[in-house]
Amino acid sequence: MRPSGRETNQMRPITIETGVTRHAEGSCLIRCGDTHVLCTASLDERVPPFLRNSGLGWVTAEYGMLPRATHTRMNREAKRGQSGRTQEIQRLIGRALRAGVDRVALGERQIVVDCDVVQADGGTRCAAITGGWVALRLAVNKLMKAGDVISDPLTDHVAAVSCGVYAGQPVVDLDYREDSDAGTDANFVMTGAGRLIEVQASAEGATFGRDELTTLMDLAEAGIAELVAAQKAAVEG
Asked: Is the predicted pLDDT of residue 1 greater than 90, yes or no?
């Protein structure tokens, strides 16, 4: 039995509220159970120096957690400096989102996606990727409406979900209690068409076999289909 009482293949409740900030070109608040992440997408007509005069666009991301997003208060990273975990997660978010972008169609401009964890209960990086895509979609919609881009630079949805082996059972969408006790921990980033972008999997305790990895991938594929449906409802609603 999972601590939440969910079935092994059951996702947490997913809601995505758009237009939650006034100034960002795209924004949403994604809630995956008790994990809540504020995602904003900001347009910048300047690209990084290594892309100047290349004709290519760029999508990058920054990630952070509010001091009381967790059970005990953390010092702000502005005070203590970015952790290695934060740097790794924001690079993952950027890589994931760029996988769904035609950078030629985007043109020589940059979109920065900021993901701020308001409340954490496991799977924050996955929620950030899923919500980050929605914010990116809304920002690109504004570019297209203004006529600044001719063809849609977003080639597909991008979403992510965590899976793991908890109490000997493969499960999807781990919350904090499951994540902290999981024997195997994995994150899957996929497109709406089911293509893999990135897989992060590690044995936290006992090793795992190929059959278990296949089961986790099957769970992830079904879970991401639910997330993509939620993304579509959010941007089309």
From this structure: no
